[in-house]
Structures are given as C-alpha cells and as structure tokens.
Specification:
Layout (H helix, E strand, L loop, with lengths): L27 H16 L4 E3 L9 E4 L12 E10 L4 E7 L6 E8 L1 E7 L5 E7 H14 L12 E2 L7
Antiparallel strand pairs: 1-2, 2-3, 3-6, 4-5, 5-8, 6-7
C-alpha cells in the first residue's frame, strides 16, 4: 500500500511522535506498516521517511538501502531512535523534504553521530553514522521530534529547473 504524504502546516508534523511499545514491533500489523512505508519511500523518491509523514505519529523511520552504510543490501528501520553527536564538526548541505515539496535549503548537521534504536525485529541497534548517512538520520529524527528542515535553514528556496543539469 502506498501512503499519501502529510504536508507542512499539518499540526501532526509539529508535535513529537509517540514511542512504540517494543512488544508490538513484530506484530503482523506493524510489519505490514513498515513494508508499506518502505514502498512509499521509494515510490515518492525519498532517501528516508518518518512515519509521521504518512499520518502515523509514532517513533519509526526508514532509510533507503543505498544510503544505509551499515548494510546496503537492506533498508534501515529505526524504532524509538535517539542520537548524540560524537564531535562538534558539522557540515552544511542542501536538503529537501517530501512534506515540504519544491522547497530546499542549506542545513547544518553534525557529521558524525552515535545512534541507538530498535530494528524491525525488535533488536537493539547501536552504531556510528557519518556524513550523508548521519544527515538523513538527523533529518528523519527531526520529523519524529516535531521539526521540519525549513525551521533550521535561513536559505529556503524553490528548485530552479532552469539551473538543473
């Protein structure tokens, strides 16, 4: 099932999503939801997707396998994620968002973070993410915490097709 994307100005996107009871992760209903979220992410051309973006404000996000530096054979599922910076080094790069279509902006993010979460089977994850992988995780975590990238940039602009190669 492909979900519709929830767009900005929906109050749901500006509230922290609820924690997930670990006992429910392996339920048939949750597994189907995760599968459908991953399918939606690819159909909508995303590199990551937070559950609140498809109308379910729970602490769950997915990241496309091409950007999962832990295991590029599988899409990454993060349930009840937390992260902390490992250094003060940051980088600034352009971001966009499925919930804010057509708008882009440069956002400062930490370049190396330590992530803790549960995976789609309820197993604990504890890993280091760097560079673009870390950026995606921070972006999706922001969704789960009720924030959009446009709140972190001073350079919001529309995509200019005339400058695209």
């Amino acid at each position: 099932m492909i979900y519709d994307i929830v767009f900005d100005h929906n109050p749901m996107l500006h509230r922290r999503s609820a924690d997930i009871d670990i006992k429910t992760i392996t339920s048939r209903q949750m597994q189907k939801f995760i599968k459908d979220m991953i399918e939606t992410m690819y159909v909508k051309d995303g590199v990551g997707l937070a559950s609140v973006q498809v109308g379910k404000p729970i602490q769950l996000c997915v990241i496309a396998k091409n950007y999962n530096t832990l295991n590029q054979r599988d899409d990454l599922v993060l349930i009840n994620p937390t992260w902390e910076k490992l250094s003060t080094h940051t980088n600034i790069d352009e971001e966009g968002c499925l919930s804010v279509p057509g708008l882009y902006g440069k956002v400062k993010r930490y370049s190396q973070i330590k992530v803790k979460a549960f995976d789609h089977k309820g197993r604990a994850l504890d890993f280091v993410a760097e560079d673009f992988f870390a950026r995606i995780i921070q972006h999706e975590y922001d969704h789960l915490d009720g924030h959009l990238f446009i709140e972190k940039t001073k350079d919001v602009h529309q995509f200019d097709k005339t400058k695209a190669i």
